[in-house]
């Protein structure tokens, strides 16, 4: 037992619980109440967003905000926006015309619970809400210039050169084998773009001049590396966990004949690759000084989720 | 024949063609080329947006921008954003789980041409692109403060209290009879919100102090009235036109047992209602002075489309 490590871990766990609680309350307040018309749509939007998920992206936003001394109220807005985009993508991704999945975060997926048409509208409305919440960051004291930059960053990450584009590449890749480069391009967009945007947006919510040009570059490399690590670990968990642990259907990628890091490299090499990325991510953070501590702790959490 | 009227009409037709051409070029430039990966997604996005539609919303943006002396390059951005949101809503609305329509703007709908999964991603990516294009208006000289206001306006109009919410009410209303109030609430959100946003966004792209508080209020009333008139005329056209003229499946609302102004009031009374709204819209514009001329001409075009 190492008391110093224990104390640090305890602090991290307090910090991350506090962040998750803040973001949950902020999401709660930005989502229209289920009593507001159209009630069924609002009920479904709340079902899709609240009370579930690991909130990895909101934690990344808050951890990156520490680097530039961003105000927590502003970070809450950015964190909500990113989580709303993530939640919408899950709702659409689960639809029958996409992955046709019935279980998410341990509950029936939105289209199973509310019907396909509502699920589509839930996703559409959540995306719009994400940008509305971000535009409102002006009222929390973020400069309009920074707000427009953060909005542009999120829109790019969500669009056809980001997340939606990654999904499209994924669609076209089912049943055929990809090279590692192609797989990285797909995941870099599908999952990595939004994770990287979380980090960039969090840092952009504070004082940009607290970081040098070299530090911004190290942060960008870190964002890319941790996004990739996240996906490699996801692929490993998909083959080695059961559905109860995952909260979503396990073994789905294999069943759907989707290319993954495990199908490409085998399980052992995929684990080794995750370890390498983990080390690289920490090398990037070492250039950012002590205020990168929360990002370092989150990196450990992402990579060590379950193995 | 009234020569002055003829000259004015000719000027309007030149102006509207010029606007539509500008907006088409701007949409062209903001949409990624079909050669950019993922190619199929980009091809489908371009198919959904370019070379079709009456561009009513972009024309409203430009016409409202005249009121506050907004720069055309800035209005092009706002016009593109509104049209991208409109185009995405059509793509999603046509999907089998929604209206299940096969014809749009005289062409097969996106899901018929590209498949359902691509159609969903096309809509998702177009919505993100709309906000990216707006955020970029800073580079055209619009103040960041105005950019955030215009983004908030569009996000509200597109979201669960606007367009997506109207769709949800529409979903829930199929097969049951609505009162005129309920019908107005539904259309006010489904169609009216985005038309009204087009007008507000156009005016917000210029110098706000060119309009008094009373004039801003008259503009808001105009926006609401013209949005309603648009929908009443749409309902009339749905029963009295054929699919070739409409460019979409005619008689679809009746076939789907959807409540419309015609089913609620009968054809004659719906026409009378359209005439009343037309007159009310002009009364609002009369308070805005001569710079509202393009809006007045557009109002005539919207109401007199085909009857």
Share of β-strand residues of chain A: under 5%
Low-confidence stretches of chain A: none
Tell me which protein chains meet in the greatest interface and how many residues each side has: A-B, 56 and 56 residues
Determine the CATH topology of chain A: Farnesyl Diphosphate Synthase
Series of secondary-structure elements of chain A, N-terminal to C-terminal: HHHHEEHHHHHHHHHHH
Number of strands of chain A: 2
Oligomer: homodimer
CATH class of chain A: Mainly Alpha
The coarse silhouette of chain A is globular
Radius of gyration of chain A: 19 Å
Identify the CATH architecture of chain A: Orthogonal Bundle
Share of helical residues of chain A: over 70%
Please identify which CATH superfamily of chain A we are dealing with.
Farnesyl Diphosphate Synthase
**What's the average pLDDT of chain A?**
91
Strands across the major sheet of chain A, in which order? 1-2
Q: Structural class of chain A, please?
A: mainly alpha
* Tally of DSSP helical segments of chain A: 15
Total number of distinct structural domains of chain A? 1
The biggest sheet of chain A, with number of strands, parallel, antiparallel or mixed sense and barrel status, is:
2 strands, antiparallel
């Amino acid at each position: 037992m190492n008391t110093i490590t224990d104390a640090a871990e305890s602090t991290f766990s307090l910090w991350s619980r506090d962040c998750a609680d803040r973001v949950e309350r902020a999401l709660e307040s930005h989502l229209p109440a289920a009593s507001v018309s159209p009630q069924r749509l609002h009920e479904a939007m709340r079902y899709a967003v609240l009370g579930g998920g690991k909130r990895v992206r909101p934690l990344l936003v808050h951890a990156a905000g520490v680097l530039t001394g961003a105000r927590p109220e502003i970070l809450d807005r950015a964190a909500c926006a990113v989580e709303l985009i993530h939640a919408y993508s899950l709702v659409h991704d689960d639809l029958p015309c996409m992955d046709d999945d019935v279980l998410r975060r341990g509950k029936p997926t939105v289209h199973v619970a509310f019907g396909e048409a509502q699920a589509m509208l839930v996703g559409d409305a959540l995306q719009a809400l994400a940008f509305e919440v971000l535009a409102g960051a002006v009222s929390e004291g973020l400069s309009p210039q920074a707000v427009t930059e953060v909005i542009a960053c999120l829109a790019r990450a969500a669009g056809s050169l980001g997340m939606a584009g990654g999904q499209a590449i994924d669609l076209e890749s089912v049943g055929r084998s990809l090279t590692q480069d192609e797989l990285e391009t797909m995941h870099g967009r599908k999952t990595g773009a939004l994770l990287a945007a979380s980090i960039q947006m969090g840092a952009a919510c504070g004082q940009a001049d607290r970081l040098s040009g070299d530090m911004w570059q190290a942060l960008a490399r870190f964002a890319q590396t941790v996004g990739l690590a996240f996906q490699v670990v996801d692929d490993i968990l998909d083959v080695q966990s059961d559905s109860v642990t995952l909260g979503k259907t396990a073994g789905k990628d294999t069943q759907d004949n989707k290319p993954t890091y495990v199908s490409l490299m085998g399980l052992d090499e995929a684990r080794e690759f995750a370890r390498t990325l983990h080390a690289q991510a920490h090398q990037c953070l070492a250039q950012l000084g002590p205020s990168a501590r929360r990002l370092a702790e989150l990196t450990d959490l992402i990579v060590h989720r379950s193995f």
